[in-house]
Write a structure and sequence with these properties.
The chain is mainly α. It is built from 23 helices and no strands. It is globular and about 65 Å long.
Length: 584
């Protein structure tokens, strides 16, 4: 008889590998997030008095309002054209100013910066603060300082955009190959020379993708800045709703939706033709790295996989991947692609200068804004915190977290119907995808204005608006993540006779959990920022207090509100980042 004891006993020096307890830190974090989402949803429903009966009544009131808005009454073609042009110019001017300011800010904020160390903390603080305060909140301040018109809107767009562009560009700078920069420093080049000659060319494709995506976001934001008097097509929308001209409001909303959808298609086309002309993709599949990247950098996925691939390829100078297909390393010169890129760069510069000129930056007007700026800054100290302010912040927080939790659940269902590897019927996938694009094309503030008109003031309208936008956004993120998963486990289970739900539970869901968690946290982060904006339209939260404090010249309350918004948004963002790091 052969004894099996020596064969089954591991050697004393063998490494058994990492052992996980049944309730590891990862499981505790996941359980904590689930409990927090359920608790936030229940508390939100209790706070706003949401029940199946009230939801049915609210949807019935909204349906009656939509019937009153039909048929849409479109403005005259000339008026529509001018409003669209003004909206686009505000977005282009704000995005261009933000890009110019973000480049030096990103280099200073990067960990690889070799200049004065004391500049890094202030640069990072600017990136955080500008990203935390919503665009519409900045627009209210700038309207008070510079007066009504597109100048205030463009500056608001620029200041808020700096946070996102500089943050993502900082990540790209830190991930760039440090060898060329070190070689340039060894030759005596200064820090500015190193940045311009070695780092900026490598991160420029990523910067272009970030700016294009931010322009898409800013066009949506510019479409509603007119609600607070900051120019654009939103002025006409607010006028129509204020005068109860719902037919005209419906026509303007249709114009906004069509504009946003067309520009989204244009943005996708530009990214495909400009950012990766002939780039050769590597053929090696690495599903582990792809899943890890998708889970850890869900926010960076918003910039577009094309921009990231082009940026990585442009940074590879050791091989031929940075060259268009079919071109040898020594084959340089002016070809069709280079001519198109240079012409596009020149046209972009011209459009940016025209957009700046359209803002009417009159020196007299700018100098006249200094007294208003001094009055605002002087009145902001010391900040005046109060119980009403804290309750309004809590209301915004509950609306955002509750809507994000419900939206993530609904978005998961829609994503399963949309993704090509989980949909039960391909035509249904196409219909749902088109519907999500249309729903995503309507700004959140428009939903809030409609629900306020139908249901009245309060957080109920804000919750419904955030619910719709969070559902559409989560469905988009989840569907993209599902389609990027490794198909081999699902195919293997299907080939051995597993049912559809069994193949999904064992082959898709375990891979999808990290992306679901990371993207769900990001949706909650975005919902919190938007909840501040919705209060300006009367949909509950802290936004209404901010608009009222500026109108009554109580700038100390305004300062307290801005500080509270920044602290809460930064805290949620930090918690989400910690959760992703430990969970994913």
């Amino acid at each position: 008889m052969v004894s099996t004891t020596p064969a089954t006993r591991a050697p004393a020096t063998a490494d058994p590998g990492p052992l996980r307890p049944p309730w590891s830190a990862r499981a505790l974090i996941a359980a904590g997030l689930l409990v927090a989402a359920v608790a936030a949803t229940w508390l939100t429903f209790w706070w706003i008095g949401l029940s199946p009966a009230s939801l049915a009544a609210g949807l019935d009131d909204t349906a009656r309002l939509l019937r009153r808005m039909w048929p849409p009454d479109l403005p005259r073609a000339g008026d529509v054209a001018w409003m669209i042009v003004e909206t686009l110019l505000i977005a282009v001017a704000g995005t261009g100013l933000a890009a110019l300011a973000s480049v030096p800010l990103a280099f200073v904020a990067a960990r690889t910066h070799s200049g004065p160390r004391w500049l890094r903390p202030p640069a990072r603080a600017v990136v955080v603060l500008t990203r935390a305060v919503p665009t519409l909140a900045f627009a209210i301040l700038f309207v008070r300082i510079f007066g009504l018109g597109p100048l205030a809107g463009a500056l608001a767009v620029a200041v808020h955009s700096v946070g996102m562009i500089a943050k993502l560009l900082t990540d790209a700078v830190e991930e760039a190959d440090p060898v060329p920069a070190e070689a340039a420093r060894a030759c005596g080049a200064g820090e500015v020379q190193v940045a311009v000659s070695t780092v900026l060319p490598r991160v420029f494709p990523a910067l272009a993708g970030i700016v294009l995506y931010r322009l898409d976001i800013n066009i949506r934001a510019s479409a509603v800045l007119g609600v607070v008097g900051a120019g654009g097509i939103g002025v006409a929308l607010q006028t129509a709703l204020g005068s109860l001209n719902y037919h005209r409001a419906a026509g303007i909303i249709c114009v906004i939706v069509v504009l946003v959808l067309l520009l989204e298609l244009l943005s996708v086309a530009v990214r495909r033709t400009v950012l990766r002309p002939g780039v050769r993709r590597p053929s090696v599949r690495r599903p582990t790295v792809r899943r890890r990247t998708a889970s850890r950098t869900s926010r960076r996925d918003l910039v577009g996989r094309d921009a990231g691939a082009a940026g990585r390829t442009a940074g590879d100078t050791t091989g031929t991947a940075a060259l268009p297909a079919g071109r040898a390393p020594h084959d340089v010169g002016w070809d069709r692609g280079r001519v198109l890129r240079v012409a596009g760069a020149v046209a972009t510069g011209v459009v940016f200068l025209v957009s700046l000129w359209s803002l009417d930056p009159d020196p007299g007007r700018l100098s006249g804004a200094w007294p208003n700026l001094r009055a605002v800054l002087a009145g902001m100290w010391p900040p005046a915190f109060s119980g009403d302010l804290l309750m309004a912040v809590l209301e915004s927080l509950l609306m955002a977290l509750g809507a994000a939790a419900v939206g993530a659940a609904c978005g998961l269902v829609l994503a399963l119907l949309t993704a090509v590897n989980t949909t039960p019927w391909r035509p249904l996938s196409a219909v749902v995808r088109v519907l999500l694009v249309v729903v995503r094309g309507i700004p959140d503030l428009v939903y809030a204005l409609l629900f306020v008109a139908a249901l009245g003031l309060g957080p109920y309208a804000g919750f419904l608006a955030l619910w719709i936008s969070s559902t559409a956004l989560a469905a988009k993120f989840f569907a993209d993540s599902l389609e990027q998963l490794d198909p081999l486990p699902h195919e293997a289970l299907t080939s051995v006779g597993a049912r559809r739900w069994q193949a999904f539970a064992a082959g898709i869901w375990p891979q999808f959990v990290p992306s679901f968690t990371g993207n769900g946290l990001f949706v909650a982060d975005l919902a919190l920022r938007e909840s501040v904006v919705l209060g300006i339209a009367g949909a509950g939260g802290v936004g209404y207090l901010m608009q009222e404090s500026i109108a009554t010249l109580r700038y100390d309350t305004t300062a307290a509100i801005v500080i509270a918004i920044a602290v809460v948004v930064y805290a949620i963002e930090t918690l989400a980042r910690i959760a992703r790091r430990h969970l994913l």
